Hints:
Blueprint: H1 2-26, E1 44-48, H2 66-78, E2 82-88, H3 109-119, H4 121-133, E3 137-141, H5 151-157, E4 162-163, E5 173-174, E6 182-185, H6 212-225, H7 246-264, E7 276-277, E8 286-287, E9 295-296, E10 303-304, H8 315-321, H9 330-335, H10 340-352, E11 361-364, E12 371-376, E13 382-387, E14 402-407, E15 417-423, E16 430-437
Parallel strand pairs: 1-2, 2-3, 3-4, 6-11, 11-13
Antiparallel strand pairs: 1-14, 5-6, 7-8, 9-10, 12-13, 14-15, 15-16
Amino acid sequence: xxxxxxxxxxxxxxxxxxxxxxxxxxxxxxxxxxxxxxxxxxxxxxxxxxxxxxxxxxxxxxxxxxxxxxxxxxxxxxxxxxxxxxxxxxxxxxxxxxxxxxxxxxxxxxxxxxxxxxxxxxxxxxxxxxxxxxxxxxxxxxxxxxxxxxxxxxxxxxxxxxxxxxxxxxxxxxxxxxxxxxxxxxxxxxxxxxxxxxxxxxxxxxxxxxxxxxxxxxxxxxxxxxxxxxxxxxxxxxxxxxxxxxxxxxxxxxxxxxxxxxxxxxxxxxxxxxxxxxxxxxxxxxxxxxxxxxxxxxxxxxxxxxxxxxxxxxxxxxxxxxxxxxxxxxxxxxxxxxxxxxxxxxxxxxxxxxxxxxxxxxxxxxxxxxxxxxxxxxxxxxxxxxxxxxxxxxxxxxxxxxxxxxxxxxxxxxxxxxxxxxxxxxxxxxxxxxxxxxx
Length: 439
């Protein structure tokens, strides 16, 4: 009898120990399998961005990856440890539309977003179900490709979604509730070509906020739709203004960036053809590449431009309007417009090295370059920046289907906040980078 009792006692201890160990494991995210279906609590914050869902799959950047995105979101929905899903911009794509196409097809923005939801029905069905079930909070922060899409129109296709927006259209900065040292934003606020511009073109389109990146993207989309043509490009030369005027120097730098762009995305059309159909955000004209390209009548003479005339001079006002905490010099902003590293750098400049900031974890999207960088802030405290990458089909020389998982620290003295960067290619979750910090 005593033997039986001893055996029962040992079995009971083993059973209790096993249960406790299992519960302990359920409290922690597995780096190789972050989305558990049986967990004791919901604590994970998942961040995705740059899905670029379009209204027409004939030219949308995310087409082949749609089934994987739907499966990924389904895994989020079925998990029992995800607390919040943050969509950090460029969910909807109002920019990547070949230049000659009328984006709204003669209708309005609400019709356009409804077409996006219908075209990407599987993805939106899962998102709406997650929102409707209320187990996981879904938060949306605007990006540059959905810059002008209003709160009402986002809510039209994703009713009940939480939207974190600045008072000014096209921007938002988000800290999950209870975590003020974590900041999530798209990252376009700091980009000369992509941040809202309510100062340029007001004589042409009063009230517009579209930056020049919008027109660049329309040209790039045309280049893709034409099958990446390799044609000779002849760009009228512009040389530095001999006066040495700072504004003219900046406009020359602006020209050089356009020159690089047009040599990279070589379209079949002549630059004087009116091919860029707008009818969006107060614009109603049709424009040529030459309308965007700075020009010069005589070598070394005055440099001028039609669209975005004076953009090099209003950058200071533009940053103030867009609540940029640490102003970026115009020359640096223009030169860094096409560099992912400049977006990454601004996480440190605006947050970690800013004496007025106590933020220790920053998540950006925008650049499509998934990366994680650890550094030290102005108080010599460890800080983590991570870029959430993209879900577009073709992300040359980089992975796609990226996402970030933040596991907040527990209340004990030794716990840390873990940040992990993954991809979901071939519907397999692969850990790309990870780090942790005690907040």
